[in-house]
Amino acid sequence: MSEAEGFGGLPVQPADLLVRPWAQSVPGGTRADKELRAIEVSVPARISDLQLSLSAGLVAECEDALRSVAALDHEHGASLRPLSGMLLRAESIASSKIEHEMATVEDYARALHGVKSNESAVSMAQATGAINHLVQNGPTEEAVLQAHSELMRHDRTESLYAGRWRDVQNWIGGSDYSPRGADYVPPPPDHVEGLVEDLFAFSCRDDIPVLVQASIAHAQLEAIHPFTDGNGRIGRALASAIMRRRGSTEHVTVPVAAALYAKRDEYFGALNEYHGGDAEPIIRLFSLSARVAADESSTTAQLLRLLPDLWRKEMGGPRSGSAMDVVLARMERNPVFTDADLEDDLGLSDSSAHRVVAALRDAGLIRALTERKRNRVWAASEVLDELGDLELRIGARMKGR
């Protein structure tokens, strides 16, 4: 049996379909939008007491994936400090791409340092903070709301709803002016609070295999769609937070979204199957994604471990404590920096910082991400290139399945 084939399904209670009255509140649209008077909404079943009959094959696949995740975290997470930041960035980029937020790695790095010329890159940078907050603070209502606030508070159209549950009806697909022809209509706003309380109760259980719990919690948040925007990114972050709470990871956030992005249509199909009462497709796809992402991240970890010595060799073995030495040490911790960072954080003089940056640039170890003359943003070339290559390798393996 191939990794893409099923084991026969894992039944869960499907969503209830309810008919609710509808009155258009957004001006515009066609006559059909304006005349729509009733809509069918989906209300997912409660899952806090969900009992699952898992096949041996599904459990084995989840355990295999979890071993890869645990190995990455144990073998590289504790000893390789830059890895956690790099994988968090990879997850942020891919999770945003799933939502059609497209930007280059360079754009994203610029956005992390306050350059806001690319809105999609800014969205990716905000996703980094949101994911990190949720992973670090656990799958709780407070942490989810704060993560959503970090994600959406600078969004010009959604900032009003940042960090709070929706009090309006939303929908996916179809018309922009009404749920007419929508692909999915989530539960009405008066159901949201009870459903998310139930979701958090499920997320805090300890009697379910970790990746089963993480994938179902993620799918359930998608089904509830408790925010006006940002549900996908918060849902995927919730899965990572559950893995951290259960002890599967301690140091790193595995870039599962990079694998899901490569199977975007299959991923959305699996979420729809969960809505319809079959949890197996999303569990199996999430587990496969976690394993592939963890395996490829281990390759990245091995490269990152080699880079500091290669940099020092390239720069002629700088004396300990010299300006070059301290800058290279900072590059190990954070591969993107500004001229001001070297002066303010490391206490280098303007002339020393300029001299080191010029030498690193000439050696090809760093490249400029901005053209401005003052306080330019620089990045370690090999680290930035590896961030892009990690996504490519994950995608290639997923597409080959």
Written overview of the protein:
With 401 residues, the protein is mainly α. It has 2 domains: 16-299 and 389-399, Fido-like domain (Fic-like fold, Orthogonal Bundle); 312-388, Winged helix-like DNA-binding domain superfamily/Winged helix DNA-binding domain (Arc Repressor Mutant, subunit A, Orthogonal Bundle). The chain has helices at residues 31-35, 56-77, 81-98, 105-112, 119-137, 141-152, 189-203, 210-224, 231-245, 256-262, 264-276, 280-314, 323-333, 339-344, 350-362, 381-399; strands spanning 16-21, 38-43, 336-338, 366-368, 377-380. The strands form 2 sheets. It has a 3-stranded antiparallel β-sheet with strand order 3-5-4. A two-stranded antiparallel sheet has the order 1-2. β4 and β5 form a beta hairpin. The protein is globular, with a radius of gyration of 23 Å. The termini are close together. 43% of the residues are buried.
Q: What form results from the Cα inertia axes?
A: globular
- The total number of structural domains is 2
Spatial separation of the terminal alpha carbons? 12 Å
Helix/strand order: EHEHHHHHHHHHHHHEHHEEH
Q: What is the level 1 CATH name of the largest domain?
A: Mainly Alpha
Strand content: 5-15%
Number of helices: 16
The strands making up the biggest β-sheet line up spatially as 3-5-4
Annotated CATH homologous superfamily of the largest domain: Fido-like domain
Structure at a glance:
The protein is 58% helix and 5% strand. With 401 residues, the chain is mainly alpha-helical.
